[in-house]
């Protein structure tokens, strides 16, 4: 009978972890990923047509109303009086989209005339009013 004693050691038992099978499995997985990733990302390159989805907006016309120093009014370079101005403002306010009224006045024009035109435009239904000025020369 062979009895072992505590002083004898087994040379077959090694307490360290053997990492060789783990490295083999990782290398196999790496090779599989290297082979499959280009297949997943593969696509046919074609030149696709481009389409836009922008709405075609009709820009409203601008009405140029000029006033000289004597108080004469010009509707797009055509001389008019106050009655004609009121009817034209009423016609312009019915258009879709509504035009913008650009007021151009001389520097010496009375402020009262400009206010009368602004009040007529507001009561006639025009909501967009702008003033045209000349910038200072540098």
Give a short overview.
This protein has 138 residues and is of the alpha/beta class. 34% of the residues lie in helices and 16% in strands. It has helices spanning 20-40, 82-93, 111-124, and strands at residues 62-67, 73-75, 78-80, 100-105, 129-132.
Structure description:
- The chain has 138 residues and is of the alpha/beta class.
- The chain contains 3 helices and 5 strands.
- The chain starts with 19 loop residues before the first helix and ends in a 6-residue tail after the last strand.
Give me the count of strands: 5
**Rg to the nearest angstrom?**
44 Å
Overall, the morphology is: rod-shaped
Low-confidence stretches: none
**Number of H/I helices:** 3
| Termini gap | 120 Å
The chain-level mean pLDDT equals: 84
**Strand order of the biggest β-sheet:** 3-2-1-4-5
Strand count, sense and barrel status of the largest sheet are: 5 strands, mixed
Note the run of SSEs as H and E: HEEEHEHE
What amount of the residues lies in strands? 15-25%
